[in-house]
Design goal:
Layout: H1 2-18, H2 22-43, H3 47-60, H4 65-77, H5 81-94, H6 99-110, H7 116-129, H8 134-148, H9 156-176, H10 181-193, H11 197-210, H12 215-227, H13 231-247, H14 251-273, H15 297-310
C-alpha cells in the first residue's frame, strides 16, 4: 500500500513538472493501456495482430491522437502505405502542427522517389512550426542527401545543390544538438561529395569521438586524409576500421578493406623511397578522434610495406 502511494505521488510530481493537463493525462493512460496489450504482437512483428488491437482501442477511444499515430505507423510496417498516409493526414487535419504526424507522413512520402518533393513540402511545413527541432532538421538533411544519392539523378549541378542543401540542414541540426553521431557522419559525406575535404574530415572526426567503434567513420576519414596527402594518419584510420571489423568477426568486409589499406601503405612506402614525405599531424582535427593505441603505427606502415616487398 505504501509503495503504491509513493508511486502515485511520483506520478503526480512528474505531471506537475512536465505540466500535463487532465486531458493529456487521460490520453496518455488510454494509449498506454493499448500499448501494453499490443506489446507482444509488436515485439514479434505480428503487425496484423497489433493493428487489430489498436483498431479495437481506437473504437473505444476515437479521439486519442497517440493511438492514431501508432496505428498509422503500424499500417506502414504492414505494407499498407495508403492507409498509413490517410491516417497521418487525418491527424494533421485535426492538429496541423502535430510534429509526429508531420515526420511520419514525410518519411512515408520520401520512400517513393516520385514523391520526394511532396516530402520536402511536408517537412518545410513542419519546420515552420518547429524551427529549432534537431531531429526534424536532420530529417530534412537526410531527404536532400537521399535525393542526391538517387541513381536516377545524373545532373552534376543538381547533385551539388542537393548536397549543399543537406549540408546546410545537418549543420543547423548539429547547432541544436552536436552529439548526433549519424548527423556528424552524414555531414562528412555531404562535404566529401562537395570536395570540401577539411570540413569533411572534421565531421568524420567528431563522429568518431561520438562512436569510436564506427568502422565507416574511421575508413571515410582515412579516405579523406589520403586525398589531403596525410598518408600516415590515413593509414592509421583505415587500419583501425579493419581492426574493428575483425573484432566484430566480420572477416569478409575486413579483408576487402584490408586490400585498400594496403594501397595506402604502398603509397607511404613509395613516398619514403623517393625521399618524399606526406603531411604530418593534421592540426585541423580534434586529437580526441586519433586512436592513441594506433599512435606508433604511422612509423611502422612504411617499414611493414618495405619488409613485404623485399621478401
Amino acid at each position: 500500500m505504501f509503495k503504491r502511494a509513493l508511486g502515485f505521488l511520483f506520478f503526480l510530481t512528474i505531471v506537475a513538472v512536465v505540466g500535463l493537463n487532465f486531458k493529456q493525462i487521460l490520453a496518455f493512460g488510454q494509449a498506454h493501456e493499448i500499448r501494453q496489450s499490443a506489446q507482444k504482437a509488436v515485439e514479434a512483428q505480428n503487425w496484423e495482430k497489433a493493428i487489430q488491437l489498436y483498431e479495437a482501442g481506437l473504437k473505444r477511444y476515437p479521439e486519442n491522437i497517440d493511438i492514431k499515430l501508432r496505428l498509422a505507423w503500424l499500417y506502414r510496417k504492414n505494407q499498407q502505405p495508403e492507409k498509413s498516409e490517410s491516417s497521418y493526414r487525418a491527424i494533421l487535419k485535426r492538429e496541423p502542427d502535430n510534429k509526429a504526424a508531420m515526420l511520419g507522413l514525410a518519411s512515408l512520402l520520401e520512400a517513393s522517389p516520385a514523391r520526394i518533393n511532396e516530402a520536402i513540402v511536408q517537412l518545410r511545413k513542419a519546420l515552420k512550426a518547429h524551427p529549432h527541432d534537431a531531429r526534424l532538421l536532420n530529417q530534412v538533411g537526410n531527404l536532400y542527401k537521399s535525393a542526391a544519392e538517387n541513381p536516377a539523378e545524373s545532373r552534376p549541378g543538381t547533385k551539388k545543390w542537393l548536397y549543399e542543401q543537406s549540408r546546410y540542414y545537418y549543420k543547423m541540426s548539429l547547432k541544436q544538438n552536436p552529439r548526433q553521431f549519424q548527423t556528424q557522419f552524414n555531414l562528412g559525406v555531404a562535404n566529401q561529395n562537395l570536395e570540401d575535404l577539411q570540413p569533411s574530415a572534421q565531421a568524420y572526426c567528431q563522429a568518431i569521438i561520438l562512436n569510436p567503434n564506427s568502422y565507416e567513420a574511421h575508413y571515410n576519414l582515412g579516405l579523406v586524409l589520403s586525398s589531403l596527402d596525410y598518408l600516415d594518419e590515413a593509414y592509421r584510420q583505415m587500419n583501425r576500421s579493419v581492426k574493428i571489423l575483425t573484432e566484430k568477426d566480420d572477416i569478409e568486409t575486413a579483408q576487402k578493406l584490408a586490400l585498400k589499406v594496403q594501397t595506402i601503405k604502398n603509397r607511404v612506402f613509395n613516398s619514403n623511397k623517393q625521399g618524399l614525405s606526406s603531411r604530418q599531424n593534421p592540426e585541423f582535427l580534434d586529437k580526441a578522434c586519433l586512436s592513441p593505441e594506433m599512435s606508433g603505427e604511422n612509423s611502422e606502415a612504411a617499414k611493414q610495406t618495405e619488409a613485404s616487398q623485399t621478401e
